[in-house]
């Protein structure tokens, strides 16, 4: 008996796929429905019945206990809580892709649907300003980027515009003191332009920003004033584990201000990455890096299709560390 899983937005569409692929003799083994995600139907057909598009018995299906990589990918995407339409697009992208393991197949699906642009580790012509809602982990991520540059001996400039939040400057100042970096603080866009001129010799200039409410036009206008003060690239920072719809709406708001990359924090504290993928897809953002540790000196991972697929796999290294992590997370 051969088993195959089908994913669709509705039960009716899933059953139609079952009949089209396996025929009328298929037996429904299991169904699973989750609001906002879709339906997964697992069906079976006797080995003696030829199935169009399915391999013959003498290939990878000769072992009834061997998992089908495509079915494994379907399960992984379902578990991460992706919306049904995005889930289906990823699966459609690998319909004709032959892979012997689920991780390779998942990486191929991610590569076909998403863009990956890790933050540069060397010289970059534009200052990078980390933007996002309050509590997303921008300050700690700036510290991680500073540590990454310092460990490679690359000069980096650090500026903070987060002069409103209690302790915002103090937290970043503590990190920069350890790294023996000069931290400049500015309160308005004109001062930011002057500070960027001072830091012109650095290979990279990193700018921490105050958390902005993406649903407050006043907050967004204030952030826009800082961004237009100089030629700055805003990088959106969002934590993992959010509601996918909420994350998408936030991502679109910051995309309108010029953000083109999404950096995701707190992967060590989230079991589902659907919000990250949905936000990137809906807002048209490139996935850049991910924070997988609360420690400033480590845990910033450049994302690629392969590295993201590895993080999404059951039993990944990040999953195993989650229960061990404590402290301030980003």
UniProtKB/TrEMBL annotation:
<dbReference type="InterPro" id="IPR000897">
    <property type="entry name" value="SRP54_GTPase_dom"/>
</dbReference>
<keyword id="KW-1003">Cell membrane</keyword>
<keyword id="KW-0472">Membrane</keyword>
<dbReference type="GO" id="GO:0015031">
    <property type="term" value="P:protein transport"/>
</dbReference>
<comment type="function">
    <text>Necessary for flagellar biosynthesis. May be involved in translocation of the flagellum.</text>
</comment>
<protein>
    <recommendedName>
        <fullName>Flagellar biosynthesis protein FlhF</fullName>
    </recommendedName>
</protein>
<dbReference type="GO" id="GO:0005525">
    <property type="term" value="F:GTP binding"/>
</dbReference>
<keyword id="KW-1005">Bacterial flagellum biogenesis</keyword>
<dbReference type="InterPro" id="IPR003593">
    <property type="entry name" value="AAA+_ATPase"/>
</dbReference>
<dbReference type="InterPro" id="IPR047040">
    <property type="entry name" value="FlhF__GTPase_dom"/>
</dbReference>
<feature type="domain" description="SRP54-type proteins GTP-binding">
    <location>
        <begin position="125"/>
        <end position="314"/>
    </location>
</feature>
<keyword id="KW-1006">Bacterial flagellum protein export</keyword>
<dbReference type="GO" id="GO:0003924">
    <property type="term" value="F:GTPase activity"/>
</dbReference>
<feature type="domain" description="AAA+ ATPase">
    <location>
        <begin position="124"/>
        <end position="263"/>
    </location>
</feature>
<keyword id="KW-0342">GTP-binding</keyword>
<dbReference type="InterPro" id="IPR027417">
    <property type="entry name" value="P-loop_NTPase"/>
</dbReference>
<dbReference type="Pfam" id="PF00448">
    <property type="entry name" value="SRP54"/>
</dbReference>
<keyword id="KW-0653">Protein transport</keyword>
<dbReference type="GO" id="GO:0005047">
    <property type="term" value="F:signal recognition particle binding"/>
</dbReference>
<keyword id="KW-0813">Transport</keyword>
<dbReference type="GO" id="GO:0006614">
    <property type="term" value="P:SRP-dependent cotranslational protein targeting to membrane"/>
</dbReference>
<dbReference type="GO" id="GO:0005886">
    <property type="term" value="C:plasma membrane"/>
</dbReference>
<dbReference type="GO" id="GO:0044781">
    <property type="term" value="P:bacterial-type flagellum organization"/>
</dbReference>
<keyword id="KW-0547">Nucleotide-binding</keyword>
<feature type="region of interest" description="Disordered">
    <location>
        <begin position="295"/>
        <end position="330"/>
    </location>
</feature>
<comment type="similarity">
    <text>Belongs to the GTP-binding SRP family.</text>
</comment>
């Amino acid at each position: 008996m051969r088993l195959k899983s089908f994913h669709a937005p509705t039960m009716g569409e899933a059953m139609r796929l079952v009949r089209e692929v396996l025929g009328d003799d298929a037996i429904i083994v299991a169904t699973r429905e989750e609001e906002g995600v879709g339906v997964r139907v697992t069906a079976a057909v006797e080995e003696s019945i030829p199935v169009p598009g399915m391999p013959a018995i003498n290939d990878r299906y000769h072992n009834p206990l061997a998992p089908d990589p495509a079915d494994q990918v379907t399960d992984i995407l379902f578990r991460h809580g992706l919306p049904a339409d995005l889930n289906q697009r990823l699966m459609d992208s690998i319909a004709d892709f032959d892979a012997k393991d689920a991780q390779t197949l998942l990486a191929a699906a991610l590569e076909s649907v998403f863009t990956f642009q890790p933050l540069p580790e060397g010289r970059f012509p534009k200052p990078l300003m980390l933007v996002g809602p309050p509590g997303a982990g921008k300050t700690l991520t700036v510290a991680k980027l500073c540590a990454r540059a310092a460990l490679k001996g690359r000069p980096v400039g650090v500026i903070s515009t987060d002069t409103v939040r209690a302790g915002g400057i103090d937290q970043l100042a503590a990190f920069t003191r350890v790294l023996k970096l000069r931290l400049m603080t500015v309160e308005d866009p004109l001062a930011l332009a002057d500070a960027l001129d001072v830091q012109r010799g650095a290979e990279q200039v990193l700018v921490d920003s105050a958390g902005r409410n993406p649903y407050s036009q006043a907050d967004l206008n204030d952030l826009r004033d800082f961004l237009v003060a100089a030629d700055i690239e805003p990088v959106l920072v969002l934590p993992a584990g959010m509601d996918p719809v909420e994350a998408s709406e936030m991502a679109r708001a910051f995309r309108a201000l010029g953000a083109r990359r999404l950096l995701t924090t707190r992967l060590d504290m989230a079991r589902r990455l659907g919000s990250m993928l949905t936000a990137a897809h809906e807002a048209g953002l490139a996935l850049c890096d991910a924070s997988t540790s609360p420690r400033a000196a480590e845990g910033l991972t450049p994302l690629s299709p392969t590295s993201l697929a590895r993080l999404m796999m059951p039993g990944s290294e990040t999953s195993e560390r989650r229960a061990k992590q404590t402290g301030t997370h980003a």
